[in-house]
Each structure stands twice: as C-alpha cells, then as structure tokens.
Amino acid sequence: MKVLVTGATGFLGKHLCRILKELDYKIYISNTKEANLSRIENLYIFNDIKFDYIFHLASATKAGDYCLTHQGDQWENNQLLNTNMLVYWKKYQSQAKIICMGTSCSYPVDLPMTEENYLVGQPGNDLYTYAMTKRMLLIGLKAFEKQYGLKWLYFIPSTLYGPGFEKHDNHFIFDLVRKIYNGKYSGSEVELWGDGYQRRELIYVEDAVNAMLNLLSQENQIFNLGSSKDLPIRYYAQEISEYLEYDFDKINYNIEKYVGVRKRKLEVDKVQQLSLNYCHTSLKTGIQKIVDFYSDKYGNKS
C-alpha cells in the first residue's frame, strides 16, 4: 500500500507514520519542508506515484487563545492547505481514498455532538474561523464525491494525547503536565486557567490511529472518535499530581483567563454500532506515559 501523509511531522502524523511503517505501508510525506502544501506545484513530485490512501492531517492552528487572535491567518492558511490538497487529489490521485481530520470545535454549541449535527447551526465564537475552515473541508469532500465519484473518510477526534508531543504544545493535558511538573521540581506556581470544572474528553493517540485504520474500508462517512468520558480539568490535574507526588491543593485557578467551552464530549454511537472497540488505553496509563515522556525529554529535576 502506498500512502501520502500531510502534516506528517505533527503530533498525530508522527504516530500515524510509525504505525503505518510497522504495517509495511510505503509512506510519502508532505510537511513545511518537503512537498509544502502552500503551493500545489510542490505536490507534483508525487505525480508518478499512485497512492492507495492520502491522510490529510495538515492544518494551521495552535491551542490556547491562538484562534482568538489569528482569525485571518486561520482562514487564509487552512483554506489554502485544504484547497490545494483536494484539487491535487482530484486531478492527479483520484484513485486514492482521502482521509481527513475534522475538529470537535466545529460542532454547534447547543446540540448533541453527533455526526449528523456537524454542519448544523453555528460553532462557538471563540474558535469560529478555524471551525468553519474544517466544515468547508468536509463540504469539499462531499462536493468532489458528488461530481467526480471520489472516495473519502472524515474523522473528528476528541483531544488527542500521548507521548511525542512538543515541549510547548499548549493543548490542555500537556499544559497540565508541564505546569505541575515545574511546580514539583522548580517550585514555580501552578496556575490553571478557569475554575477547573470545565470538562474535556481525551483519546489516546494510538487508539485513535488504530480506529482510523480499522475503518478504512468505510466510504464517504464521518466518524467521531472519543472515549465517551468527559471529565473536569481538576480531575486530570489531580491524576497528574498524584503520579508526580505533588500537592494538588497548591494549584491556583485563574478565572479571568480564557477557558473555552464549559463542556465538550463527542457522541460515538456510530463507531460503537460497528462493534469497534478501540479505546484500549486507560486514562491512568495514558497520563503516566505522557508524564514519563515529559520527564525524560524535557524535564529538569535538579
């Protein structure tokens, strides 16, 4: 099997490429340095290859309040990446099935997060521009299916976590690890944004990748991928504190800071109806793995 992976050096991309290699897939990559998606011509180096699958993971965004302050960049960069990829797929790789990633922030804030609601209503204001570029990606897939008969899959994961993240990745679970680790070993104040009762859902990255690969035989479908468990930020902070033997009661909460939505949990009945049991990694095990990774890769216990 020949596979093109965009965003191959990102968090999800690194784990996907590793697992694909273990399965003996022949992998070609696109990132900011190689076959950069900012210009469609950069992809022409692959014209003599016929891919079986294209995993389009590339996106231009960051966690935290980036989406609040970079709406223009979000629209321009993501529309460019997505349009170039889809046009290249249509013109030169129409035999391939393309697998794209959505985002839970595209869901409307007042409806259950079921796949049929993904394009209904309005996303939340804070992440609106990024959310709409992801909706437009799905609309592009549907349009190319209807006019040209192309095949696709679209996955919407809850927050991905696991080892291999960048030191300054600000997704909430990595931010918690970094802050509590530094509180333990450097004595710095541990301040979390919000009151700690906002709820979030995690999915271990290897579990998500394996679910995606097990669903490759499906066609023209949207799938949520989540653990079905949304927990308060305080719960995750307490698990990390216990593993690091840090006093959880020392954590301070800053309710003046940006916190995002109060609750976010995906409904996963659709994949469960396929008898796809994919969440094999317990939260406790997953947290221990990311704490150990941070300690080994970035930590300074001196």
SSE layout:
Blueprint: E1 2-6, H1 11-22, E2 26-30, E3 53-56, H2 66-69, H3 71-92, E4 97-101, H4 128-148, E5 151-157, E6 159-161, H5 172-186, E7 191-193, E8 199-204, H6 205-214, E9 221-225, E10 230-232, H7 233-244, E11 252-254, H8 269-272, H9 283-298
Parallel strand pairs: 1-2, 1-3, 3-4, 4-5, 5-9, 6-8, 7-11
Antiparallel strand pairs: 8-10
Helix pairs in contact: 1-6, 3-4, 5-7, 5-9, 7-9
What does this molecule look like?
The chain has helices at 11-22, 66-69, 71-92, 128-148, 172-186, 205-214, 233-244, 269-272, 283-298, and strands spanning 2-6, 26-30, 53-56, 97-101, 151-157, 159-161, 191-193, 199-204, 221-225, 230-232, 252-254. With 302 residues, it is α/β, with parallel strands linked by helices. It has two domains: 2-157, Rossmann fold (3-Layer(aba) Sandwich), CATH 3.40.50.720; 165-200 and 228-264 and 281-298, UDP-galactose 4-epimerase, domain 1 (Alpha-Beta Complex), CATH 3.90.25. It has a six-stranded parallel β-sheet with strand order 2-1-3-4-5-9, sandwiched between helices. Helix 1 (11-22) links the parallel strand 1 and strand 2. Helix 1 crosses helix 6 and helix 5 packs parallel to helix 7 (233-244). The termini are far apart. The model has no long low-confidence stretch (mean pLDDT 92).
Descriptive key words:
three-stranded mixed β-sheet, six-stranded parallel β-sheet, Rossmann fold
